[in-house]
Amino acid sequence: MPRLLLVHPRVRLDNLRCYAGLFAVLEGLMQLAELSNRTLVWPDLPCAVPWLGKLDAAQEQFTPRRRGLWYPRGRNRTAEGLLCTLT
Question: E-strand spans in the chain?
Answer without folding.
Answer: 4-5, 39-40, 45-46, 70-78, 81-86
